[in-house]
Amino acid sequence: MFSIATLTLLLAQYVVASPALLNPRKSTTHFEIWTIPRLDMHILSPQTNAPGNPPWSDPPPFQSSIDLDVTLPHHVLDGPHYSDPVTVNCKTEFPNGTFPGSQDRLYCDPPSSEEVLEFSLKALTREHRRPEMAFELVLTSIYGLDENGYAQAIWSGSVGVTANDPGKPTGYLKSVGGAPWDGLRCGLKGGMSKKEDLRVDVARADREECGFTGEG
After folding, report:
1. Which superkingdom is the protein from (predicted)?
2. Mean pLDDT, to the nearest integer, of 131-135?
């Protein structure tokens, strides 16, 4: 078994060092496709949209939030498992004017008693937009975690998400202003976004697959 930190680093090196493995069609054992059928965000808008556009109060009347559902397979370690997939919920709140960083570990509902599902967010700085409108969503599932923090296997994948960009591969999110003092409401499959679920290509790493022979 390996620690979470060791296994996460190993997964990143494993995928980058093996370009042929980046195509899920070349393997039915170590790659999966997870979907996100729902992703809702509630954030401050630049203006309050109230008559005269008075400024937001300090502190604002609500915190920013993200709330999403993830559909993934039922995991076992001895090969593909074809039972019905499971859908779990992930959500968090954060102060307005901030954005969760890639080091923030945010927890979803557990897919099973053997598995811990985490998500993290990372601003896509190349887009030059506020981070809520352009970010990378990272999903990490840790299987067989023991009391010492060691895991038997880990699945991880990420997807870029931008708002109001239906022509871009990342343009899954619509974001529109609501009633006065309500800020922006964002979600999937709207008039200014792609009309499909978010798709996340996920890779699995464990001791045998990664060639480790000792404990990390």
Report:
1. Eukaryota
2. 94
47-63 residue pLDDT tens: 888 888 888 888 888 99
Phi-psi label, residue 25: left if phi above 0, alpha if psi -120 to 50, beta otherwise: alpha
Q: DSSP letters along the chain, please?
A: -EEHHHHHHHHHHHHHH-GGGG-GGG-SSSEEEEEEEEEEEEE--SS--STT-PPPPSS-SS-EEEEEEEEEPPP-SSS---SPPEEEEEEEEE-TT----TT--EEBPPSBTTEEEEEEEEE-GGG-S-GGGEEEEEEEEEES--TTSEESEEEEEEEEEEBS-TTSTT--EEEEE-STT--EEEEES-TTS-SS-EEEEEEEEEHHHHT--S--
Whether residue 66 has pLDDT greater than 70: yes
Q: What's this model's pTM, rounded to 2 decimal places? A: 0.78
> How far is 177 from 165, CA to CA, in rounded Å?
16
